[in-house]
Specification:
The chain is α+β, with helices and mostly antiparallel strands. The protein is built from 10 helices and 22 strands.
Length: 355
């Protein structure tokens, strides 16, 4: 069985690792010149750690990442609640979220894939495909073509594979401009915690530690660093940028011999940190379906999981960024109550970890 994976991000690399681990021949192509050097997605949830255990990737991630201990909420500079991430009953063997820049996660997956005999061809751009009952013929930039038994489109939100299949990507774009910053900082007060800073008029700023004296700051405002109300001594700004959020999901994850995974199939708000993890789970499920031959299972199972994640992410985003004064008051009151109730804290921890 010959399988082509388009896209060498977390979903594509996970698919490659899981297919190779099961004895199936997979090749990954990517139009980029090499692996990503950007921190991008930074949170790895317990399910992902469990799924990546058999390949040995989890051990490396744990050695390199920061185990997030709590989620802390502030109204401006005033503490509202601290939610320890120690649920009553850990699932999947882990009771924490691992914080690690995406480029390091990709490097661990890439090394595992190549160690299993996999091939990654960078500077190789997918341009089109044709399929029949016997296989999929893929066209590459420059006009060459190759034939595979199956193709996996893991090539991101602007997926060329999805476009080649003629599949729509229904959903909507949020109106506001978000911003992001990857910074080195000294003496940050929550070096092992996820921090949500509630700002006036529905604004938020989120701080996630991603290394020793290194943090990711995200805000639903045009300037994440200026919006952050909590003091942070920044020594270097590694990267800043702005982005808009799309909330979308394909209706079909499979068309014939071609499958979609990761951001090619779904995208949503970064609130909750589930995007990369959803793609990792897509890839693992797809590899298992290809191994068993139960190809019809993949689409319905992963569409349902994607829809649930999108709905959950949107609920959290709308609560945290509400502009209605009554909703904002209710949100703050709920957080204060959680801060004094161990039962509520554990339920919230389970939601952060496994929801």
């Amino acid at each position: 069985m010959r399988i082509l994976i388009v896209g060498a991000g977390p979903a594509g690399l996970t698919a490659g690792v899981e297919l190779a681990r099961r004895g199936m021949q997979a090749t990954i192509i990517d139009k980029r010149a090499g692996g990503s050097t950007l921190s991008r997605a930074v949170g790895i949830v317990p399910l992902s750690l469990k799924l990546l255990e058999p390949s040995g990737v989890t051990a490396r991630l744990l050695a390199e990442g920061i185990q997030m201990q709590a989620v802390k909420f502030y109204l401006g500079t005033e503490p509202l609640a601290s939610i320890p991430l120690d649920p009553a009953t850990p699932q999947y063997g882990y009771g924490h979220i691992l914080m690690l820049p995406q480029d390091q996660t990709e490097a661990a997956l890439r090394d595992a894939f190549m160690g299993l005999g996999g091939t990654i061809r960078y500077s190789t751009e997918f341009t089109g495909l044709q399929q029949d009952d016997d296989g999929v013929t893929v066209t590459l930039a420059g006009g060459s073509s190759e034939t595979y038994d199956y193709v996996v489109g893991a090539d991101g939100i602007k997926s060329s594979v999805r476009d080649a299949l003629g599949l729509s990507f229904p959903g909507h774009d949020l109106g506001e401009t978000w911003s992001i910053a990857d910074v080195n900082c000294r003496g940050w007060k929550n070096p092992e915690d996820f921090t949500l800073n509630i700002l006036p008029a529905g604004g938020i700023a989120v701080v996630a530690p991603i290394g020793v004296d290194r943090c990711r700051v995200i805000s639903n405002t045009p300037d994440a660093l200026k919006s952050l109300a909590l003091p942070m001594e920044i020594t270097d700004v590694n990267r800043e940028g702005q982005f808009t959020i799309s909330v979308r999901q394909v209706e079909e994850y499979r068309k014939g011999r071609v499958f979609l995974a990761g951001d090619a199939a779904h995208c949503h708000s970064p609130v909750g940190g589930r995007g990369m993890n959803l793609g990792i789970a897509d890839a693992c499920e797809l590899a298992a379906c290809l191994e068993s031959g139960d190809l019809d299972r993949y689409g319905p199972v992963r569409h349902a999981a994607g829809a649930a994640t999108i709905a959950g992410s949107e609920r959290v985003r709308k609560m945290a960024t509400a502009t209605n004064p009554v909703r904002r008051l209710l949100f703050r009151s709920a957080l204060k109550l959680a801060g004094s109730s161990r039962f509520i804290q554990r339920k919230m921890a389970e939601g952060f970890l496994y929801g």
